[in-house]
Amino acid sequence: MSGESVNKKIVEKKAKVGIIGMGYVGLPLAIGVASKGFMVVGFDIDKAKIDLLNEGKCYIKHISEKDIKKMVETKRFEATNDFNKLKEMDVIILCVPTPLTEQREPDMSYIVNTCEEVEKHLEKGQIIILESTTYPGTTDELMKEMLEKSGLKEGKDFFLAFSPEREDPGRKDFTTTSTPKVVGGVSKISGELATLFYSQFIEKVVPVKDARTAEASKLTENIFRAVNIALVNELKMAYDRMGVDIWEVLDAASTKPFGFMRFNPGPGWGGHCIPLDPFYLSWKAREFDFSTKFIELAGEINWKMPEYVVEKLIYSLNDLKKSLKGSKVLILGIAYKKNIDDARETPAFQIMEKILKLGGEVDYYDPYILQCPSTRRHKSFANMKSIELTKENLKKYSAAIVVTDHDDVDYKLISGTIPVIIDTRGVYRKLNITNNVVQA
Predict the structure, then answer these.
(1) Strand-pair partners of 33
(2) Whether 273 is catalytic
(3) How many CB atoms neighbour CB 144 within 10 A?
(4) By the 8 A CB rule, do 333 and 348 touch?
(5) Which pLDDT band, with edges at 50, 70 and 90, does 3 fall under?
(6) Which of these, 187, 9, 25, lies nearest to 91 by C-alpha position?
(7) Is the pTM of this model over 0.90?
(8) Domains and CATH numbers, the chain
(9) Distance (Å, rounded) from C-alpha 185 to C-alpha 128?
(10) What is the CB-side half-sphere exposure of residue 340 using CA atoms within 13 A?
(11) Per-residue confidence at 2, pLDDT binned at 50, 70, 90?
(12) What is d(CA 85, CA 39) in angstroms, rounded to the nearest whole number?
């Protein structure tokens, strides 16, 4: 099938779209594509997810189950772990994880393994698009070389592009379809076809010169945030020593209508982007004998924040003539951001580990995550369950730490029961509660 024929299928909504990875990126994307009349096949290796999706059920809290049911009932969606079906797709989109190794180097295994699977089933005329955040060169070096092992040639037999995901779980003002979409092709025709495809269901598509530019644009977005989060966290620690309230400083600075963009401090960084993506560029830059000092420094500051929070806890307990050793501490929120059920790279686990190492006992409360997920680095918390938030339960704790500022939490009950609260998010300042609250 030629570029012209796949072009026609896209415009007529007859193109069949395969999305590999039914997680926080792939599932909202599937909903967006299906909502515009395309047939979508969701590929995943997790059979439990597949079964739930095919029943019209959802496993991600902030995604509407109604949207899943609608896709299934209108026969515009099916989930499968049968990768042989890839050969039936006109467009194949990769939405797989891109984590770091323990040495903070890119772990490309998910992309490599998925590309190997795609290459086995690659057909003429297919459009392959990577959405996973990665270093510049992944698409036109790694993926192109792997896919061309099939004997097919990029830009002639198949078409390869990169379009970075811009999901922000829990956000209401921008959705998958209303957030502008950057697209860059390995070849000119690939970029044009990918742009045409996304323009069928995305309000604004932003084509760029090539895949590397698109890859770099996503890293730049996240590096900007990482560096500014580190800056405001460093300011918080500096102002704390001076007796200056960082929150009041930020409120005052934010009154300037130009030249200032607000970032709030916290207990560290978390999520699937900010703690990981900048180091993809750091790693790639070393290939060109370049040191990304801002990125490394931002990482150093943000990784220190859990330690700073625990120090605040130790000093606060000391003021109550208590030791952390033997004290019970309640962590309020383990999700990496408010009002979602995602604990990837959350600073909560680092704080919990530090408390345990110093002899403290730890529990958590999170209305969005009733049981801790198992992660590669924090397997010890996998079976821990959220406590019930009752006055009787709260009486057991010497201190609590606000790590995630979920909206639907009875913060007044907590501060009225637990002797000291370490507030890393400024929650109690908004409630005008200062008694037994320590800003951290």
Answers:
(1) none
(2) yes
(3) 22
(4) yes
(5) low
(6) 9
(7) yes
(8) 3-209 (3.40.50.720), 229-439 (3.40.50.720)
(9) 10
(10) 21
(11) low
(12) 13
